[in-house]
């Protein structure tokens, strides 16, 4: 948000170093070109002046025609060079824009990579990232517009004023007579636009929301299935009408103001012409000067428009996002921590761990203690929301507990680097990612340069790389959007499992990675998994208790706590929650 102490210049000073660093040489070069272009742009005024004077003199027989022709050629040459510089200027701006754009995006992505994972549990972080991306683009525009002002527009205004002053000091009034009405007009228009923007921004957000519900890729299937199109279209239409009515009302006001202001500018123009006429009649300037100044008036007007309004004003609506960019880049400086090598043979000790997500008032984990031994396979079971995935995230070191400790080997959770995943820990998440990359890249992404064989993890995950689904074998692109193929939910899950198995690990966690795979296949994957994980610590989260049986020990969670633990047989004997859930699930299969 824009604060009181921030204005366009303080923001400019803040973001200038970032924009400069994006392309330093080009930045300097671009501004030198802008200055030369400015001189060229202005020089048409004295050139026209000279041309008119010599033509008048030649027509009156006071000078040779040769001079008139030379004057015309000078004007022609200036106009030609002007066009060349115009192109050069546009090219430079574009070149610098792309270079700095890439640089700023790279910095934002790097920053995102360094943020503690817990930040991403706060939905506003996505907003912050988006705003900061938008803000970085606006920061670039802001700096370029101000630099253009400094090296192109303001020098021209100065050149004009100095030229007029030397022709006749009264002529400096010309600049003011054009400047003042134009400035008032610009300020009023911008005020109306900003007010309108503030008023319609929430309505526009609402409209975007309905639009997304109608056409967004994530929404459209459900919206269609629910036959909710009509409802959303009505909401969309009503909101669009409201938006239009607000915009029309303000645009009407703006049109009226423009009309009044145009009249004011014209009055200024008439004043200018009067002064020019007086100075010509008094013999203070030549008719040639009168003509040249008259032609330049539109140029002068557009310069003043740009200074007082122009892109500058358009940008003022977005100052807030430029600050968002700066604030985001200053967010949470990274804790520098070295990567440690964990001695997994000492197992994992979880003691009195509690954890609560940001912006919630309920503990997701409440005073959990558990000791996982070396080479042990643990299954974590429990109802939805019991805290299984949260415990997994803490084990992975993605989050830190608010109280209690998790010691893996000799290393305590607080000593673990929260930004860099630990060596030798692998995981397959419940909501795994489907990367639009080749099968090979999807599997080897944790160590893309590795030459390790991917056949084994793929086989262990039960993925059949047949020529129908994988026409290019391992190199098949797994995205239809990029000319490849798309896989079924179950095939994707196997790819994710292969990815987890491929990463070198002493500890592996499977957080319900088999929900889209049928129970028979799931048991087979888990059995293979148990065999290949014999010498490792393995944690499996699953809802299918039949699969949990393969574990050495089963941990039952409920409402953020561990309520039972033991082997399948021991838990069945206990006849508690686990036995109840197991028997309930078994009934399903018996009925079938
Ligand atoms: N990102 C989050 N922000 C806020 N609360 C969360 C978040 N993720 C989980 N929770 C809450 O924490 C509690 C534990 O959730 P968790 O996902 O760990 O349960 P789970 O046992 O893995 O559930 P499931 O079987 O449905 O995957 C739940 O009350 C849940 O609502």
From TrEMBL:
GO terms, molecular function: ATP binding
Domain ABC transmembrane type-1: 32-308
Compartments (UniProt record): Cell membrane
Membrane topology label: Multi-pass membrane protein
This protein's name: ATP-binding cassette subfamily B protein
UniProt keyword terms in alphabetical order: ATP-binding, Membrane, Nucleotide-binding, Transmembrane, Transmembrane helix
InterPro entries xrefs: AAA+_ATPase, ABC1_TM_dom, ABC1_TM_sf, ABC_transporter-like_ATP-bd, ABC_transporter-like_CS, P-loop_NTPase, Type_1_exporter
Domain ABC transporter, residue spans: 348-584
Organism: Paenibacillus hunanensis
Membrane-crossing residue ranges in chain numbering: 27-47, 67-85, 141-164, 170-188, 259-277, 283-304
Pfam family, one: ABC_tran
Principal cellular location given in the protein's record: membrane
């Amino acid at each position: 948000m824009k604060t009181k102490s921030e204005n366009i210049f303080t923001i400019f000073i803040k973001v200038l170093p970032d924009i400069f660093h994006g392309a330093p040489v080009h930045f300097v070069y671009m501004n030198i070109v802008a200055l030369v272009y400015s001189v060229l742009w202005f020089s048409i005024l004295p050139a026209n002046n000279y041309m008119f004077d010599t033509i008048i003199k030649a027509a009156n027989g006071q000078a040779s025609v040769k001079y008139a022709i030379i004057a015309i050629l000078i004007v022609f040459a200036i106009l030609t060079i002007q066009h060349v510089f115009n192109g050069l200027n546009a090219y430079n701006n574009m070149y610098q824009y792309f270079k700095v754009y890439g640089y700023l995006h790279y910095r934002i992505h790097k920053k995102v990579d360094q943020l503690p994972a817990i930040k991403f549990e706060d939905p506003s972080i996505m907003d912050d990232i988006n705003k900061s991306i938008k803000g970085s683009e606006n920061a670039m525009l802001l700096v370029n517009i101000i630099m253009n002002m400094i090296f192109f527009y303001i020098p021209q205004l100065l050149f004009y004023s100095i030229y007029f002053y030397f022709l006749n000091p009264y002529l400096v009034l010309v600049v003011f007579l054009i400047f003042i009405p134009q400035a008032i007009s610009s300020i009023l228009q911008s005020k109306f636009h900003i007010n309108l923007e503030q008023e319609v921004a929430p309505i526009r957000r609402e409209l975007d929301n309905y639009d997304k519900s109608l056409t967004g890729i994530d929404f459209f299937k459900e919206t269609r299935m629910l036959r909710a199109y009509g409802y959303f279209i009505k909401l969309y239409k009503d909101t669009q009408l409201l938006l239009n009515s607000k915009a029309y009302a303000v645009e009407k006001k703006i049109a009226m103001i423009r009309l009044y202001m145009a009249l004011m500018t014209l009055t200024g123009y008439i004043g200018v012409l009067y002064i020019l006429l007086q100075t010509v009649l008094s013999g203070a300037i030549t008719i040639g000067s009168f003509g040249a100044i008259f032609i330049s008036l539109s140029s002068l007007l557009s310069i003043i428009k740009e200074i007082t309004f122009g892109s500058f004003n358009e940008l003022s609506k977005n100052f807030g996002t430029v600050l968002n960019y700066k604030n985001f880049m200053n967010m949470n400086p990274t804790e520098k921590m070295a990567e440690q090598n964990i001695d997994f043979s000492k197992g994992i000790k979880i003691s009195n761990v509690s954890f609560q997500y940001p912006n919630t008032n309920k503990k997701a984990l409440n005073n959990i203690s558990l000791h996982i031994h070396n080479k042990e396979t643990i299954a974590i079971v429990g109802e939805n929301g019991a805290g299984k995935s949260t415990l997994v995230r803490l084990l992975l070191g993605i989050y830190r507990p608010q109280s209690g400790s998790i010691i893996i080997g000799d290393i305590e959770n607080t000593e673990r680097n929260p930004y860099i995943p630990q060596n030798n820990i692998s995981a397959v998440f419940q909501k795994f990612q489907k990367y639009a990359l080749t099968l090979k890249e999807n599997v080897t992404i944790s160590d893309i340069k590795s030459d390790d064989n991917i056949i084994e993890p793929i086989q262990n995950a039960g993925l059949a790389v047949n020529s129908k689904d994988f026409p290019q074998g391992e190199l098949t692109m797994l995205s239809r959007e990029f000319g490849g193929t798309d896989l079924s939910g179950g095939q994707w899950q196997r790819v994710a499992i292969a990815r987890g198995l491929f990463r070198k690990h002493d500890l592996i966690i499977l957080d319900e990675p088999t929900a889209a795979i049928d129970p028979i296949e799931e048991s087979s994957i888990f059995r293979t998994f148990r065999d290949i994980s014999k010498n490792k610590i393995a944690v499996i989260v699953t809802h299918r208790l039949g699969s949990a049986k393969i574990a050495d020990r089963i941990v039952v969670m409920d409402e953020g706590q561990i309520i039972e633990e033991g082997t399948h047989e021991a838990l069945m004997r206990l006849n508690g929650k686990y036995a109840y859930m197991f028997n309930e699930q078994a009934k399903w299969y018996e009925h079938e």
